Amino acid sequence: MTAERTDRHHGGRDAWHHRRMHDADALALAQRLYAALEQDDVTPFLDLCAPDAVVEYPAEGRLPYGGTWRGREGIGEFLEAHDAAEEILAFEPAEMDATDGTVLVIGFFEGRARPTGRTWSTTFVHVLTMGDGRLARLRAFFDTATAVEAHATD
Fold this sequence. Notes:
Layout: E1 6-7, E2 12-13, H1 23-38, H2 42-47, E3 49-57, E4 67-70, H3 71-85, E5 86-99, E6 102-113, E7 119-131, E8 134-141, H4 144-151
Parallel strand pairs: 3-8
Antiparallel strand pairs: 1-2, 3-4, 5-6, 6-7, 7-8
């Protein structure tokens, strides 16, 4: 089965058309992805991403890591931008559930904005689309207003 969708925001097909994974396999992959992040090890994380994977973070233009990051190289740049902008004080994926190869992750994040030294926290939701044994797409949702305020240098 091939995952296909029309992207309402960009008017065309996304690059992440992959065969969907079984839910147990998708959950296991999600756990491996977060374990790599917890170890602060970019290479294994990127190895678990499809070559055409996409990461979408809100607040493009207002947060250094906000925007759409494409491919392993782009995702590596996203991780570098996030690391340069945030000191991670807590990153706790707490709940994971999979349906049709999509994993929903609910967790808690606390960070310190490096430019200002301000601490902020939020509950987050990550929507991970898995396919062909790899991460095809990650969409993040969190309290962007709090993050933007913590990063504001005005």
